[in-house]
Inverse folding.
C-alpha cells in the first residue's frame, strides 16, 4: 500500500525532528531547483537528518511507504541529478547536516569525513593536519564531499591524483532498504570479495546514500611552478604534455588546454588579467608541484620547457615568478566559464577522448560544426592532461544567442557521434543526472545498459533511489 | 536439460579446434593443480581458446549446457581460485593463448593487452615503447595480466602506483551468457553510469571472464635509490615511513618491513647476501625512484635519511652504492618466502591494517600467539607502506613442523580476530579463492555478503562462473 504524503511527513518528523522536515514553499525552494536554474522540481518534503542513523531511519520510512528519495549535497551538480521531478512525490534527502570530520589518521594518511562536509573544509582539515587533499573544483566552497563521491568529481588535479574515486579508500552507505553498510576501511590493500564501494561512487545516488568516507591524504606541496605555454595547435599541446610528463613525471599536476578565443573572452571581461605570451592560437596552462624536500623543481621545470621550446613543441613560455603571477595565470583559466556566461548562453559539452585522439577530433569536429552552423564560435578549453575538453559552441557574432540554443540537439549529435566513434565519453566529469539520460541510452551498448539495470535492480529492487536519473 | 559431457566436449572442439580441448590425464594435470600443490581438482575439459570470439563461444556453449567454468591464467594464484573442484564437471578455460599486445598509445600513455599476456611481457612491451608498467610480483614471469586483474594483484610498488585495479582504464569481458562487453576505453575521465570494470577486477572469475585490458603507462624511472634501514621496533618503521613520505613524496615507491628472524632465515639459506646493518630487531627496505630529469634524488634521499637518523627514527641506514648492491638488498626481501619454505611449512597470513594500527597489532598478536603456542617462531615481513603484512608462524625450534600445521585453524582465528577488530583485512593481496571462502563468510558483515550475492546473481544468474570461489 502506498502511504499518504501526510503520514510520511509525520513519520519523517518523528525521525529527524519537525524542524528538519521542510514542506513550505520558500523553505523548500533552494532544494528543488539546481544552481544553474535548468531543472525545477517539487517535493513531498525536504528532510535534513543529522547523522547516519537518522539517514537510515529516513530511508527505511521512505522504503516502507514506497516514496522515492533524491539525495542532495551542496546542490552544485551540473546535470540535475539532485533535483526532484515535477510530480511532488519525491523526498529530497539533504545531507548537509552530516558535517563532521570524524577522524584524521596521520600515520595512515587518511581522513574520515561525513558526506555533508564541504570540499573546502575537507581540504582545510587536511591542511591543518599537515597534509594535502588534492580534489579541487570551482564549487569547492559549497559542494560536499558526498556529492563529489556520488558524481566521481574530477577537477584540475586529476592528471596527478585521479578523480574522486581514486581518493576514496572506504565508504559508509545507507542502502535502499535503510540498512547501513559500514565499508569505512582505511586500507590500501583489501582483496576480500567485490569492491562494493566502487558501485556507489559515481552512481549519483541511484544505488545507495553515501553518508561518510575514508579518504587518502598526501604530503603538502613544498614547491610550485605555474606556466603558460603558447602552442601552434592541439598536436603541439599533446606533444608538450608528453615532454613534460617525461621531464617532470608526477610533479606535473595540471595541464589545461585553452584556445585563443576562450582566452580572449576571459580577458575581455577581466581586462586586468595578464596576456604574457600574446598572439598565439592555443595555450597550455601548466601546474607543477613538488612535495619532496630539497626540491630542484625550478631547474627541472626550466629544463623541461627549454627542451620544449628548442624542439618547437612550445612556441613561447611564461613562467610565473611569484604566487600572485601564478594566481593570475590560473584566473585566465578559471574565469572562462563565467566570462562565457556573460556573453550569453552557449551549447556545452563535457567530453573526454584518448589524449592521442584529440587533435584529429578537434579538426574534424570544427569542420563538421562549421558546415552545420556557419559562423558559430568555438570556445574550447579543458583538462587536456586527462583527455577532457569543455567543448562549447556560441552563436555567430551578431546573431541571437538564445535563438542559437535551439541548435543544441543537432550540435550535440554531431559532437557526441564524433566522440563515440573515437572511443570517447559524452560525460567526462559532470555525470548523467537527468540532463544526459537520453544521450546515455543512445550511446551505451545495450549489453552495458543491461548490466547497469541488473545492478540497479539488485541493489534497489523497488527503484526508489533517485529514479529517472542516470538510467 | 543438462548436456552430456561428451556432447559438450564435441561442441567445444568445434569451437576452438580439437587440439585445444584437453581431456587426457597427463595433458590436463598442470591445469587442475595449483602451483603450491594445495588444491587438486578434476575437469570435464581444459579449453584453450585463441581469441575473444572463441572465449565467447566457449562460454555460450557451457552456459547452454549448464557446465561451470573455471577461468585460468598463469595458474600462479595463492588461494586456489583457478583450480576446479573434485567433481570433474567443470571446464577449465585457459586464457594463455590470448597473448597479443593489441596496441601501445604513447600520447595517451596506455597499452592494450590480452588477458593471457604474462606480466613480464607487459612490462617489456611498455619498456620497448619508452614507458614503465609498474605492476611487479614474484611470479611476473608466469602470471598473466588477466589473472593479475582478476585477483587485483598487489606487489612491491603499490605504495606509489596502487594495485592492479588502479592501473586499469578499461576492460573487455565475456559475460556469463557468452556476450562480449567491450569496455576497452583508454579514458582518464568517464562518468557515464556505473563503473562496471571495477566489478570484474578482483572478482576472481566469478562475474565474467576478462579477455583484454587497457592499462596505464608511466614515465620510466631515471634515478633509483635502494636502502636498508635498521629500526628499534615497528613504531619506528611507521615513523620512518611518514618521514620519508614527507621528504620524498611520490618518489617513495616501496617500503618493506622485515623482522630480524625473517632476515636471518633468508641469510641462512643465502649466505652470500649482505648484512650491512647487522644486529637490529627490525628493518625497512626502501625503494625510491624518480622519473623526472635532472633529478636531485641522491641528495634528497640522503637528507631524508639523515633526518631520520638524527631524530632516532632510524638506528642506522645502508644506501646501495651500485645496482648490484641494490639487487642484493632486494634479494634479502625476495628470498624470504623461499627460504622459509626450505625450513618447513608455516602458518601464513596475508593481512592488511591501517598503517597506524600495525605496531599495537604486532605487540598484541605476538602476546596472544606466544601464549597459545609457546615457543612458536614469528617470521614477519611485508609491504608496510600499504599496511600489508605477510605474518607467518613456524614451529618452535626442534618441534615437528608438519605437526605444527595442525594449529593453523586456531592461529588463523587469533590473527584474523585481531585484524578484524582493528578494521583490517584477512586477505590483503592474495584474494579469497577456495582457501579463504569460509573465513570471508565469517568476517564479512551479513549486509556486505548479501550485496555481493545480489551482484553475483545479477551478473551470473545460473551460477556457472567459478562456483565455490569467493562467495
Amino acid at each position: 500500500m502506498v502511504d499518504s504524503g501526510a503520514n510520511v511527513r509525520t513519520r519523517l518528523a518523528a525521525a529527524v525532528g519537525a524542524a528538519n522536515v521542510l514542506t513550505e514553499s520558500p523553505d523548500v525552494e533552494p532544494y528543488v531547483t539546481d544552481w544553474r536554474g535548468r531543472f525545477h522540481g517539487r517535493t513531498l518534503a525536504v528532510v535534513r537528518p543529522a547523522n547516519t542513523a537518522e539517514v537510515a531511519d529516513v530511508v527505511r520510512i521512505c522504503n516502507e511507504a514506497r516514496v522515492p528519495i533524491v539525495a542532495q549535497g551542496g546542490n552544485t551538480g551540473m546535470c540535475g541529478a539532485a533535483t526532484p521531478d515535477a510530480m511532488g512525490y519525491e523526498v529530497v534527502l539533504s545531507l548537509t547536516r552530516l558535517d563532521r570530520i570524524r577522524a584524521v589518521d596521520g600515520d595512515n594518511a587518511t581522513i574520515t569525513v561525513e558526506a555533508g562536509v564541504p570540499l573546502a573544509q575537507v581540504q582545510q582539515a587536511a591542511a591543518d593536519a599537515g597534509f594535502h587533499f588534492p580534489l579541487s573544483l570551482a564549487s569547492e566552497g559549497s559542494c560536499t564531499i558526498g556529492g563529489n563521491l556520488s558524481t566521481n568529481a574530477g577537477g584540475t588535479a586529476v592528471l596527478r591524483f585521479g578523480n574522486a574515486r581514486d581518493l576514496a579508500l572506504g565508504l559508509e552507505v545507507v542502502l535502499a532498504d535503510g540498512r547501513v553498510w559500514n565499508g569505512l576501511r582505511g586500507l590500501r590493500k583489501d582483496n576480500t570479495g567485490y569492491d562494493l564501494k566502487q558501485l556507489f561512487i559515481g552512481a549519483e545516488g541511484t544505488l545507495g546514500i553515501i553518508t561518510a568516507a575514508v579518504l587518502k591524504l598526501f604530503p603538502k606541496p613544498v614547491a610550485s611552478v605555474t606556466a603558460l605555454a603558447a602552442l601552434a595547435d592541439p598536436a603541439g599541446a599533446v606533444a608538450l604534455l608528453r615532454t613534460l610528463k617525461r621531464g617532470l613525471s608526477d610533479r606535473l599536476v595540471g595541464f589545461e588546454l585553452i584556445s585563443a578565443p576562450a582566452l580572449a573572452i576571459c580577458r575581455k571581461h577581466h581586462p586586468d588579467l595578464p596576456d604574457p605570451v600574446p598572439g598565439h592560437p592555443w595555450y597550455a596552462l601548466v601546474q607543477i608541484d613538488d612535495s619532496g624536500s630539497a626540491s630542484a623543481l625550478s631547474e627541472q621545470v626550466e629544463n623541461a620547457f627549454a627542451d620544449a621550446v628548442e624542439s618547437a613543441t612550445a612556441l613561447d613560455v611564461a613562467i610565473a615568478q611569484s604566487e600572485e603571477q601564478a594566481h593570475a595565470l590560473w584566473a585566465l583559466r578559471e574565469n572562462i566559464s563565467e566570462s562565457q556566461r556573460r556573453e550569453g548562453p552557449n551549447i556545452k559539452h563535457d567530453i573526454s577522448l584518448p589524449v592521442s585522439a584529440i587533435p584529429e577530433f578537434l579538426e574534424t569536429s570544427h569542420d563538421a560544426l562549421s558546415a552545420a552552423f556557419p559562423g558559430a564560435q568555438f570556445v574550447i578549453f579543458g583538462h587536456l592532461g586527462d583527455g577532457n575538453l569543455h567543448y562549447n559552441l556560441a552563436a555567430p557574432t551578431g546573431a541571437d544567442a538564445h535563438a542559437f540554443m535551439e541548435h543544441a540537439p543537432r550540435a550535440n549529435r554531431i559532437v557526441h557521434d564524433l566522440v563515440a566513434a573515437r572511443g570517447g565519453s559524452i560525460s567526462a566529469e559532470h555525470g548523467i543526472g537527468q540532463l544526459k539520460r537520453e544521450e546515455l541510452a543512445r550511446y551505451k551498448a545495450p549489453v552495458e545498459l543491461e548490466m547497469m539495470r541488473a545492478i540497479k535492480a539488485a541493489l534497489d529492487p523497488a527503484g526508489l533511489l533517485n529514479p529517472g536519473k542516470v538510467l
User: Anything to note?
Assistant: The mean pLDDT of chain B is 96. The longest strand of chain B covers residues 223-231.
